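Batch manifest, entry 17 of 40.
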Amino acid sequence: MAPLFFLSYARGVDDSYVSRFYRDFVSEIRRQSGNRREDVGFRDMNSIETGDLWLDTLTEALAQAKTFVALCSPTYYASEACGQEWAAYQSRLDRYHRERGRLPTTILPVIWVPGPQQPEAVGQIQHDDLGSETYSQEGLHFLLRLSKYQDEYQQVLIHLSRRVIAMAEQYDLPEEPGLDLSGVSSPFLPQVRDSAAARMSSSPVPGATATPAGVPTRGFGTTWAPATVRGGPRHVNFVIAAATSADMALHRRDLQQYGPDSYDWSPYRPQLHQRICVFAQTIAAGQDLTSGLARADEIEELLDQANEANELVVLLIDVWATRLDAYRLQLSRYDLRNEPTSPMMVPWSSSDPETFENSEELRVDLFQTFPRNLTRRDDLIRTEIADPDAFQRELVSALTEAQSRVFRLRPVVQRAGGDVLTERPVLGLPRAPGDPPDGRVQP
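Output type: structure tokens
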């Protein structure tokens, strides 16, 4: 039997809350409808058995589900995989519309974490009238986290369940055999030129197996459908600002964190022996982001290319590197730029006695290298990150905020034909003598 709903969500640090919501949602729908548990919902982590072909099973569920429930957040909008699920399900509605003359309203966006701006595909669907002002303003994740809002959470759960049951009964959406995820692209992401992104995303971690360009991974180690375009806030470039062991030998006694290459920097040894570049890329993959690597001497060119392609750039900085003239010069140039969408993160191991002994001097070195950025106290600047768990939390949070800013601050570009990029046209008043050439009247 076809599931009543398909749950679409962005994988990451919220998974425990997603699991709780899914369990509660299935139970409430069963209470109201009398359906068997296995006929109620589909969630990849809950509904795919060991040995199943993961992508085939997920595609089959998308082709059969009566409704589509999306846990919407800035991270969801930046996930190509989530966008493809939305687009594939939407193709079923479009076919129904063509054949029967009416468009089913069986997509239910749920405010998981509110963002500053919704994509048009989401904003045109009414989805916040669920009897809870706190839910409308803060999202369902907020209600789940705080015990004092459990009554409102239950109220929202009941409203959502009623809506899913009603939508499924009203339209009885037919199955669509042969649904093809590879033939759709996310409706949330700006269409961007792929030249700059392709150069940067093809820089694998040294010694690691590279993921093919445009093929993010999601769950169970299965590759997702290839992207038709590159770039956008679904791709993050990590800049590793750390010296080699040979360079650091003049400044430190303990060199266990370093190696012959900048990419060998492992700031959390002995707690975590994994290189920070591998750790960061693993976290990014968990957020359905593709990623690339660069060294500090590439930062300015990389930022220019990333700004053009609406990508993310994250600086991972070894505070000890600010004592080396070459690194301090490169990082000081970054400080002169206004980069409101680029997180700056400083791992600062609490188990490193040498860093602890020199902490006051290192803070001065850091401030002298980044006086502008540290003075403005931007939320994207995360310093003295003490351990691997804190680094994962801080990176996920910073990536989410950076994605939101890209959507809010950078112009959305789209193809006008070939490789030419144009801004979205702006409807203006007729030009008068002296008006600017774009037709918009200056205030």
